[in-house]
Amino acid sequence: MIRLLSYIYPITKKVESKYNGTLEITWHNGKKHLNTKNANYSYGSLQKILKIGLQKIDLKNCDNILVLGLGAGSVIDTLINDLNYKNHITALDIDPVIIEIAEAEFNLCENKNLKIICDDAIHFMDNNKDMFDLTIVDLFIDTEVPSPFYNATFWEQIVKANSSKGSILFNASLQSSNDKTLSEITSFLSNKKYNTEQFNKVNGTNTLLIAKAHN
Ligand SMILES: C[S@@+](CC[C@H](N)C(=O)[O-])C[C@H]1O[C@@H](n2cnc3c(N)ncnc32)[C@H](O)[C@@H]1O
Fold it and tell me: Can you name the residues that pair with 28 across neighbouring β-strands?
């Protein structure tokens, strides 16, 4: 019923979160999205942007994917249902309210191939011992990527946890005024033997950085 009504007008439920402010679960034109005050977090445009990035990565050699920034899990939906990925995913979010929404509103649940962790990505990467074939970095608070995720120490940890055949997909979403920061991350990755490619204004808005390890 809600789905049908949403073709006539959007229907929104609001939930408060300590980390992300007011979260909005909105039905619009038969589809459910997760938004913050100023940003689309899951499904909708964000899902299209990450899918464009994922289509540039060879998933055939991926056995283990790390998703930093679970949101409502739209990138997991893309991996499994659109790109037919069948192996393991570890997904992490700092916000327990977001994880609850992903499970209760977007039918995401842990299973033998999906592990969901509630933790700060910095703390998780500092303590992580696992290796991943693809790391998706999609960490935002509203429209901003928190500044620690532009630091070299964070990228050192990402590289350390990436297998020798591994790739990285970074939803950088930078304003052009921050181009210098992204080029620093790009040259850091190039020095660590990654081929990097930057895509600007993906789906009209976001900047994506894709890095692939080469030997
Ligand atoms: C755009 S959403 C992720 C969307 C998700 N990748 C998807 O495909 O639906 C960004 C997420 O980053 C999370 N986040 C922000 N800072 C974080 C941190 N320090 N550690 C872990 N998660 C964080 C937010 O709680 C939010 O859920």
Answer: 31
Q: What is the 3-state secondary structure (H, E, C) of 81-107?
A: HHCCCCCEEEEEECCHHHHHHHHHHCC
Spell out the residues 6+ positions from residue 112 whose beta carbon is closer than 8 angstroms to its own. Answer: none
Of all residues in the chain, the percent with pLDDT exceeding 90 is 85
Residue 174: per-residue pLDDT:
62
Distance 74 CA to ligand 1 centre (A): 11
Report CA(68)–ligand 1 centroid distance (Å): 7
* pLDDT of 134 strictly over 90: yes
Please name the residues in contact with 12: beta carbons below 8 A apart, sequence gap of 6 or more. Answer: 24, 25, 26, 27
Q: Mean pLDDT over residues 134-143, rounded?
A: 97
Residues with CB under 6 A from ligand 1: 19-20, 41-42, 46, 50, 69-75, 92-95, 98, 120-121, 138-141, 146
The most confident of the ranges 7-11, 57-61, 95-99, 146-150 is: 95-99
